[in-house]
Specification:
Length: 372
């Protein structure tokens, strides 16, 4: 089977990039599918994760990000020109690749609608790596136009794939064929944490969705009770300068780190994972950390954490923005070693359901149902 993915770039240390690469690797190496990916903004940026050389990467060199250095009418004209260049280039590639399936994400309505215009009878799958409420929401005229264009694209998709059952219920409001397929998680295959190291870990983008500054505020209440414990934060993003400035103004054993390809070593050297996100379509770092034997404390945001954490069993779900409760649960795990280790064992067991061997057959069944 020939499978074509479409995504703007694989240039960042991000969850979507990691997931797409893991799936493409599995389809090509395990199932022997011919896998292609078209990008628009990859340029000379290296791909941060290991990609199977059997996967065909073709960058169309549209460079959509350059439009944002202009304003007003000029930006509109340049965006219009880029859209038509994209349309022409995809039309050129499709007869060469001859895909059986095309897969894109909800990242951009322009990409989605161009694919709809040129795909012909090829089945199109749209993966939701956000949540319905963050993809389609009320706003001004610009937001209304974006919603209209997204819905137009969704109407011509064969299937929308959601990551959780709760989010799928929302997508069913606008599409008749919604499937739930959780993310493939790149699980730990080495040793697990002893949970004896005095380290709490936070992993994610230094952006508003992940709320790294909330983690700092939480730690301000944890640290005085346990001054021998350390908080390790890993990520990249626009809030990093502010985080570093905030950390520099206090002495609370907080360490701001860049992304690392050795993140599993970091999990294994830690004893608790904390998640502070505003929303999570899935929450990839949670099962990653669980596969290293870490219990997790997370805000119960929409929708990912509740699908991954069984409260009081493999971690704690805390009501959104209840900072005092978050502090209490972290302190409980720090002070109660036996609880920490029993939850860690449960976390390790529960993480296995997101392995590629379990998730990827769901994708193959979906492909088979669309290709007659």
């Amino acid at each position: 089977m020939r499978i074509l993915y479409f995504f703007r770039s694989l240039a960042h240390w991000g969850g979507i990039e990691r997931i797409l690469i893991d799936k493409m690797n599995y389809l090509s190496s395990v199932y022997g599918d011919e896998v292609y990916i078209l990008t628009t903004d990859q340029g000379t940026h290296p791909i941060p994760y290991n990609l199977n050389p059997e996967v065909h990467v073709d960058d169309l060199n549209i460079r959509f990000h350059l439009q944002y250095q202009y304003g007003g009418i000029q930006r509109f004209i340049i965006a219009w020109q880029m859209k038509h260049i994209l349309k022409r280039k995809i039309k050129e590639r499709l007869p060469i690749i001859r895909p059986d399936i095309i897969i894109c994400t909800t990242a951009n309505y322009v990409d989605l609608n161009v694919l709809v215009e040129v795909k012909g009878n090829i089945p199109l799958i749209v993966e939701s790596h956000s949540v319905y409420q963050k993809t389609l929401f009320n706003g001004g005229l610009k937001r209304q136009y974006m919603n209209y264009m997204f819905r137009r694209g969704f109407n011509h998709a064969s299937t929308i794939v959601s990551l959780t059952e709760r989010d799928a219920l929302d997508w069913c409001k606008i599409h008749h064929n919604v499937k739930v397929i959780p993310n493939v998680v790149n699980l730990n295959t080495g040793r697990v944490s002893t949970l004896d190291n005095k380290r709490v870990i936070w992993v994610g983008r230094y952006e508003s969705q992940k709320r790294p500054l909330e983690m700092i505020e939480i730690w301000k209440s944890v640290y005085p009770k346990f001054p021998d414990w350390h908080l390790e934060m890993y990520g990249e993003g626009g809030l990093r300068p502010l985080l570093e400035e905030t950390v520099a103004s206090v002495e609370m054993n907080i360490h701001i780190n860049p992304p690392t390809s050795s993140i599993f070593e970091c999990y294994r050297d830690s004893s608790i994972l904390v998640s502070t996100s505003l929303f999570e379509p899935f929450g990839l770092v949670i099962p990653e950390a669980m596969s290293c034997g870490l219990p997790v404390v997370a805000y119960n945001c929409a929708y990912g954490p509740a699908s991954l954490i069984t409260n009081d069993i493999n971690g704690f779900l805390v009501n959104m923005n209840d900072r005092e409760a978050m502090v209490r649960k972290i302190c409980l795990l720090i002070s109660n070693v036996s609880l920490r280790k029993s939850m860690g064992k449960e976390a390790l067991l529960s993480s296995s359901k997101y392995s590629a061997n379990i998730i990827m057959p769901l994708w193959k069944m979906l492909f088979a149902s669309l290709v007659q």
